[in-house]
What we know:
Elements: E1 2-9, H1 14-21, H2 24-31, E2 35-42, E3 45-52, E4 55-65, E5 69-76, E6 79-87, E7 92-99, H3 102-134
Antiparallel strand pairs: 1-7, 2-3, 3-4, 4-5, 5-6, 6-7
Amino acid sequence: MMRVEKEIKTNQDINVVMTIFSDPTFTIPQIFPGVSSVRCAEPEIFEAEGKFLAFSYKVKGRVYKGVDEVRIIYDSDRGNGILYIRKKDNNILQIILEHDNNLTAFLGKRYVSSNLDRLAENIDEIIRLERIKRKI
């Protein structure tokens, strides 16, 4: 099992950040490597496709929204997992990815960690642009 965890500090309103991260069309490409498309059948049900190394993959999942946590449970042809996005306090976001396929986890951990590091470095600008796009 793979577990990747990252705490990200932001200067943006944490409630707005949580709202944006509850949208899989935003979150899935930010976290998973090589995502080429994300489609939502309903606001909380999604399908995504991507290519990681030489492997194409498909992901189906559901988003569960709480007051201080967004939980994305997904099933893919490369394993299953849960992505937790938690509000730690007024300016810290905790992201945890748990993935159950050992081979994919072994290969993907470095890429997911790299995506989270990039997100941590640029979170305020990414959220600022997303707020402009969504007018929130």
